[in-house]
Write a sequence for this structure.
């Protein structure tokens, strides 16, 4: 660690006037009091009592810092932090406040990427403000480095995620093709291809998983273009494919059909099956007054398709998978008959000792079908407790479709 | 109580409205703590019944943990310390009744001293 970095992140250069902090604690009185005290340090405060209200706050405005309680009423701070990191790319620095002072918890907090860990016992307001300053300073240094890396990436010839041409190179090549076509009186076509659900996948399953799918999507585009055509990454979830030889309406239509077919596929994230489909728009230069006009048309066309998709699927039902689809269908593999039930249960994640409420919809000796309260990513192995009096059983997730999962009891196999 | 979150002089420097707000919240905390004291007394009675010690101790530990987390920021550090001592005592397997009585007396003393 360089001296410069240490000096930059000690927080001494941070002025808290007008900065915002979100206090996440299930104790209303504690929140109000801490908010009043921080207000005197000229901090603007927001409050949340649980993950849902926190999401509402963050969707509206990302604060400069988040103070997160380790033990929320029915949620674990670590688990919540992990979810926040998956959902928000530009998450503010998070400081954990905890009544649990064990070294194990503190080490875990730092390993999980929390900016600071403050024991609540004997906590003074100046300790909190110093921690806020340091965290904001460190976050700003890191954000600045990320910006520099982004700038370097923009200048790169190839996009490092997909291996396709970068946006800058794509723009350059498109302009060259456009100029050549104008000069020679020939035609060229541009396809705008978007992975429609990239943002939703990122929100539900994390940026890393969304990027893995985007890589796979890009590889399929590359595999389905002609050898003398080229393509590049246009923005976060959209690619441009440029065809500048033998361009005609039948050729463009044939390629459209092929891309639509090849880019509709199932992707498995561990045992979750996601149905991927593209949004594709195509423009032929002879129908437009220049490249700018073509790009404008393509943007409008994709926007129209996005809206149509949103209308079809609704805001929450992002995946259009049927109730039991393909490899996810557990029917064939059941060893014993499954009884329909409506039993309350909860899932316990060992790593975070977190509880997730759910309902058991059918149950057999070997496994169960479980409905979650909302869509979320789950590990392959976890614990489940069916009804309050049932034992805590280790299970393996066999399939996962939207908010339903199929599990088998590990103890039933032994 | 001696250990205020902000020193008396700092509190005096605050605008009237802020001072009143902080004082109001502090009073609410005291009121809530008095309610918790009633619960503690009830749990101590429950604890006398056969087979109820474990359940009562779990509830006492939860209450103590809550005081550990909140007392400091409201300026009642000795209460937080007393609660911390009780929480640690009850958490230990096979703790002695003498240690429990002492830790509990310390917490009740701090709760009675709240004003």
């Amino acid at each position: 660690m360089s001296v410069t970095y240490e000096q930059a992140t000690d927080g001494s250069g941070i002025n808290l006037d007008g900065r915002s902090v979100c206090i996440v604690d299930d104790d209303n009185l504690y929140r109000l009091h801490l908010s009043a005290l921080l207000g005197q340090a000229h901090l603007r405060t927001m409050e949340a009592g649980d993950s849902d209200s926190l999401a509402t706050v963050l969707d509206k405005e990302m604060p400069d810092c988040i103070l997160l309680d380790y033990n929320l009423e029915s949620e674990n701070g670590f688990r919540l932090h992990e979810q926040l990191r998956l959902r928000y790319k530009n998450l503010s620095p998070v400081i954990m406040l905890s009544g649990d002072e064990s070294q194990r918890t503190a080490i875990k907090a730092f390993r999980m990427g929390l900016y600071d860990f403050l024991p609540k016992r004997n906590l003074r307001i100046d300790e909190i403000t110093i921690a806020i300053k340091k965290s904001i300073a460190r976050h700003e240094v890191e954000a600045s480095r990320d910006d520099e890396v982004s700038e370097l990436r923009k200048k790169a010839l190839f996009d490092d995620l997909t291996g396709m041409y970068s946006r800058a190179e794509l723009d350059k090549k498109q302009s060259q093709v456009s100029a050549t076509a104008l000069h020679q009186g020939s035609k060229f076509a541009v396809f705008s291809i978007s992975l429609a659900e990239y943002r939703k996948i990122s929100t539900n399953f994390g940026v890393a998983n969304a990027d893995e799918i985007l890589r796979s999507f890009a590889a399929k585009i590359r595999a389905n273009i002609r050898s003398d055509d080229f393509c590049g990454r246009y923005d976060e979830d959209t690619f441009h494919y440029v065809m500048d030889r033998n361009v005609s309406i039948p050729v463009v239509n044939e390629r459209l059909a092929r891309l639509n077919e090849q880019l509709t596929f199932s992707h498995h994230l561990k045992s979750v099956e996601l149905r991927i489909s593209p949004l594709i728009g195509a423009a032929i230069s002879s129908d437009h007054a220049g490249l700018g006009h073509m790009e404008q048309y393509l943007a409008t066309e994709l926007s129209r398709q996005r809206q149509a998709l949103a209308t079809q699927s609704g805001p929450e039902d992002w995946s259009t998978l049927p109730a039991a689809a393909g490899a996810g269908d557990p029917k064939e593999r059941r060893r014993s008959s499954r009884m329909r039930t409506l039993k309350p249960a909860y899932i316990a994640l060992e790593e975070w000792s977190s509880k997730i409420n759910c309902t058991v919809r059918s149950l057999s000796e070997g496994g169960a079908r479980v409905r979650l309260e909302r869509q979320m990513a789950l590990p392959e192995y976890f614990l489940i407790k069916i009804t309050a009096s049932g034992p805590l059983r280790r299970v393996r997730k066999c399939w996962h479709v939207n908010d339903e999962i199929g599990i088998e009891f590990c103890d039933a196999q032994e | 109580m001696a250990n205020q979150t902000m020193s008396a002089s700092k509190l005096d420097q605050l605008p009237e409205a802020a001072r009143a707000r902080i004082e109001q919240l502090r009073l609410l905390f005291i009121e809530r703590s008095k309610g918790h004291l009633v619960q503690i007394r009830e749990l101590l009675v429950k604890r006398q019944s056969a087979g109820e010690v474990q359940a009562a101790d779990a509830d006492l530990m939860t209450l103590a943990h809550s005081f550990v987390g909140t007392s400091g920021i409201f300026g009642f550090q000795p209460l937080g310390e007393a609660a911390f001592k009780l929480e640690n005592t009850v958490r230990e397997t096979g703790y002695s009744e003498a240690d429990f009585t002492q830790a509990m007396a310390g917490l009740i003393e701090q709760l009675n001293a709240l004003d």
Notes: Residues 150 and 299 of chain A are 23 Å apart (CA to CA). The longest helix of chain A spans residues 125-155.
